[in-house]
Write a structure and sequence with these properties.
- The protein has 214 residues and is an alpha/beta fold.
- The protein has a single domain, classed as Rossmann fold, CATH 3.40.50.150.
- It has helices at 9-35, 70-82, 119-129, 147-158, 161-164, 175-180, and strands at 40-45, 60-66, 87-90, 104-110, 130-141, 183-191, 204-211.
- Helix 3 (119-129) links the parallel strand 4 and strand 5.
- The longest helix is centred in the first third of the chain and has 27 residues, at 9-35.
- It is globular and about 45 Å long.
- It binds S-adenosylmethionine.
- S-adenosylmethionine (SAM) is lined by residues 6, 15, 19, 45-48, 51-52, 67-69, 72, 93-95, 110-112, 115-117, 166-168.
- S-adenosylmethionine (SAM) binds at residues 6, 15, 19, 45-48, 51-52, 67-69, 72, 93-95, 110-112, 115-117, 166-168.
Length: 214
């Protein structure tokens, strides 16, 4: 795999538990919304422990799920065995996705564009592998619209947060970057979703973006 190896065993253990907790408190519904109506061949980037896999509709014929972190990838492989649709879990990173140009009908990112080191590069790769007219489905936490909260998020990003949260950033805008990469946002719902009152990773967005022709 090109780039710096990613290895976060402690984060992987904690995040797997947090994701399971979130699943029971609304996260499962968000993931179903994220994936509803997808069909054909899908690439999921930064699949983590595979929390999305069980929510893919049966109209999806194949998911190629890439995950660079080895502990999460092992869990994703287990989740793939229980998935209702075929899922291939691969070692790869957003910056260098597997497969030729325009191979996939859709791409999926959930809680990943907060973490990739270079959003523009990750989105350029998604643009490359999704066919013209295909979809990018996104579920992300983004920077707060409240100025004081955004200031706290920026301070956390510049100090401790990425170190304790597997490289995550709190103050990314994300949706403008999706558009800059050549996707037209067709729907985007913004909503609060806090697992604990003081957790700063909020608000969230779920949406659909359409890949333009080159
Ligand atoms: C907060 S977790 C989200 C996992 C999963 N997508 C979910 O919805 O639960 C962030 C994920 O991004 C992955 N990640 C970090 N850097 C990455 C990169 N450069 N390319 C792809 N995935 C990356 C992490 O290993 C981790 O699985």
């Amino acid at each position: 795999m090109a780039g710096k190896p990613i290895n976060h065993p402690t984060f992987a253990r904690i995040y797997t538990r947090v994701a399971a907790y979130a699943e029971q408190r609304g996260g499962a519904e968000h993931r179903r919304t994220l994936l509803a109506g997808l069909s054909g061949r899908v690439i999921e980037v930064g699949a983590g422990a595979g929390a999305n896999f069980k929510h893919y509709p049966s109209t999806v014929t194949q998911v190629v799920a890439v995950e660079p972190e080895p502990h999460l990838r092992a869990r994703a492989q287990q989740a793939a065995e229980r998935a209702p649709i075929p899922v291939d879990v691969l070692e790869a990173a957003a910056e260098s996705l597997p497969g030729p140009d325009e191979r996939f009908d859709a791409g999926v990112v959930s809680l990943v564009l907060c973490t990739v080191p270079d959003q523009a590069r990750a989105l350029a790769e998604l643009f490359r592998v999704i066919r013209p007219g295909g979809e990018l489905r996104f579920y992300e936490h983004v920077v707060s619209e409240r100025p004081w909260e955004a200031r706290v998020q920026k301070l956390a990003d510049a100090t401790f947060w990425p170190h304790v949260a597997g490289g995550c950033h709190l103050a990314r805008e994300t949706t403008p970057e999706i558009e800059r990469a050549g996707f037209a946002i067709e729907s985007c719902e913004r909503f609060p979703f806090k697992l604990a009152p003081l957790l700063p990773a909020d608000p969230h967005v779920i949406g659909v973006a359409r890949r333009a022709a080159r």
